[in-house]
Specification:
With 391 residues, the protein is of the alpha+beta class. The chain is built from 12 helices and 19 strands. Bound molecules: flavin-adenine dinucleotide.
Length: 391
Amino acid sequence: MMKTHFDAVIIGAGPAGLTAAIELSRCSWKVLLIEKSEFPRTKVCGGFVGPENIELLQEMGVYDDLLLQGAEKVDRVCLSASNGAQVRIPIASNSSSLHGLALSRKLFDWTLWNKCEEEGVELKKESVAVPTESLEGFDIEVKNWKNNHVEQVTARYLIYANGASKQKGSAASGFFGISALFKNVTNMDKNVFLHFVQNGHLGINQFENGLTNICYVADKKMHQSVGGNLEKLFLKFKEENPVIREQLSGAIQETPWKGMFLPKKSKHRFSEKNIFYLGDQVGLVNPVVGGGISLALSGGQLLASLMGNYEASQMPFEIVAERYESEWKKRFFKRVCWSKLIGNLSHQKIAANNILWLLNRNQHWLEKIFNFYHKPVSLKKFNETKVEAIL
Ligand SMILES: Cc1cc2nc3c(=O)[nH]c(=O)nc-3n(C[C@H](O)[C@H](O)[C@H](O)COP(=O)(O)OP(=O)(O)OC[C@H]3O[C@@H](n4cnc5c(N)ncnc54)[C@H](O)[C@@H]3O)c2cc1C
């Protein structure tokens, strides 16, 4: 059987894999992207894309498309605690045009998928890959589980961008994520909301088509306290935080709850032999800070830029792997570590009440924390790094 050869096979069509595919294809690499699910697909996610990603989305040529298809601009992040304390963080200021985006992952990932197609990436959905090592890289069996069609391909490099769920050795984190779409939610004008309760938080985001996404994360204790009943869990959030109660008083649910257990990331891994890891496979950002998509996008860009240029730069491939790991750590390591602490504190009712009270009086701290997580990733700075790496 004739085997088609690819420079890289990417596994997983989330923001990490899709970005790497687009960027590698632009470096003239022949890329195959394999996604196991039907596509486009819905995904449990807050759907907040931080302002630090806008420049990259523009560079990728998808930003205008996203807005055209109904992605909402976000100008403010509004936080509330169980005692009713509230703070607002402005994203956009008079001096900057920066804003976040709010949209469903169905729309976001599908738009990137279409861009991949446009850039010449070969795409296979509803398929899984079984790779075996070969002299030149990998022999890969690609099987479509829907029609049982099997194809053999070869690749020099394999990139795992298949999210956190299937990570070897990963255990359940003890957290549960749930989301559904609603209408008639008040106060949504360019705002994204994060409401805290004991053992959980709830995000509210305006999506396309006039629908509002409600996505909450609850820990095992809270989940067990209602016998795993998602409707009761939602009522518990409303009981515990008066701001949620008020905002959702007239809300009407449009889609059923969809839930998932959040995996626990044990250790960071970046590469081994001719394999690279990307996005949630490398490091998990606690969803409370809404930075996972950012890490996936800019991590994808970072890896593709290093891989795509390594031949021209004549760097040994091990140096690319080292560079990937060190650049990743420089950019994201602190964010990942601090997000755990912020996540833990925000789920303690007393801590969340007091922290919000304090932040209310010290707005500049809040902006500092937000900017730490959502500082625009300077492409210029990255390109300088690339040059440095080559020299
Ligand atoms: C409840 C919750 C809310 C969140 N809210 C936000 C938010 O508002 N903003 C934000 O920035 N981040 C948020 N995040 C984090 C964000 O969802 C992730 O960080 C991001 O999706 C990671 O992207 P990725 O490409 O690494 O993986 P994923 O988006 O998980 O994509 C992986 C893809 O790989 C596919 N796949 C898996 N296994 C295989 C296989 N064997 N073969 C082929 N394909 C496979 C999957 O079907 C999937 O399409 C949230 C996370 C949770 C849990």
